[in-house]
Amino acid sequence: MNKKDFLKFYDxxxxxxxxxxxxxxxxxxxxxxxLTSEIFLKALRHFEDYDPALSGGAWIFTIARxxxxxxLRDSGxxxxxxxxxxxxxxxxxxxxxxxxxxxxxxxxENLFKKxxxxxxxxxxxxxxxxxxQIVTLKHLLGYSFKEIGEIxxxxxxxxxxxxxxxxxxLRQVSKI
Amino acid sequence: xxxxxxxxxxxxxxxxxxxxxxxVLRQKLFRELMKTYPxxxxxxxxxxxxxxxxxxxxxxxxxxxxxxxxxxxxxxxxDNPLYKIKRGVEKAELKMARSPERKAAVSLxxxxxxxIEIAQPQKKDKSFENTLANYQQAAEETMAAAELVTSPALKxxxxxxxxxENLESINRLDEAAVKVKRAAVEQKKLEEILRNRSDKILxxxxxxxxxxxxxxxxxxxxxxxxxxxxxxxxLKLEKIFNKK
Lengths: 176, 244
Fold this sequence. Notes:
The structure holds two protein chains of two kinds.
Chain A lengths: L5 H19 L4 H17 L6 H4 L2 H18 L30 H6 L3 H12 L2 H12 L4 H8 L3 H20 L1
Helix pairs in contact in A: 1-2, 1-4, 2-4, 7-9, 8-9
Chain B lengths: L3 H12 L3 H18 L10 H26 L10 H14 L3 H20 L5 H23 L4 H28 L4 H60 L1
Helix pairs in contact in B: 3-4, 4-5, 5-6, 5-7, 6-7, 6-8, 7-8
């Protein structure tokens, strides 16, 4: 890819990469901003090696994942917002786990500041893994149905139906 | 019950980047890019450039629409603010006519448009005077354009057309003048102009007739000379035939 196309690439991927990093650094804005800047600068330096036909969006996520991993390792921090191993082919799998029955960790407190938001987080934890992933990817991290389908290996239509059912379930659970 | 959709949306917004940060980072990356491509100003296409382009297209579209309306509407006369646009478009049309024949045809069309403007009610006296002056000019231009047609066969056709159109125009205006109530001053000016036009056209017709008569006389002369030559050749042939 020509470096001249980089700004378009940036516009397309910025929001997702930022949220990807933000979620994994426990909601700390300054850290997320620094890391995002470093990730995109790295991407710019190696942009000529990028082939959209081969890697799609996975390339920038690989850079982000590696950079994040290095940061977390070097900073020695541990977050209770558990992020499971991010696989090599960039399909991320993560789960949101409650620890000790309530929001006790710094990360959770940063991510879910208000009571209602914490309640949403606890309701999400009650969903099945797949539904939780879909709702989080779609409504919190801003992925499209097509992208979610690619991540989870599902058809776009299936993802839409699953997302609709998951929200319906969340509403029902919230009434209880 | 909590509003699930609302809180999910709020969370998503809160987890999103600050817009200012996004712009600042973009600028930083742009500066890095400029180190590699210093002579490429188009690299910095930002969102507001697109909005500016969209706004420019909209303005152009509106301007074009105004121009089309001004040009095609017969109600736009001298005292209308859009009149200048109308005349501007007509001038452009005349300039785009490349051949003298095309220019002559466009001039005839413009004469009709000036004639229609005379019938429009106008608020200012000065406007009516200008309208009459425009009509007079258009009428003269039709004759001048017809004279400039290069092809002799087409020239006479265009001149006749111009004369016919002028005469018909004068007739129509004359008839319309009876029906439309005008101020006495305006009526007088209109009649004066129509009279002047009639006189000029009659003069031109007279000149044309003379030219055609001369042309016919010349053709007749040539024909007679041709006949004489044929007679001579016939005599020669008779002599040769008789000798035998």
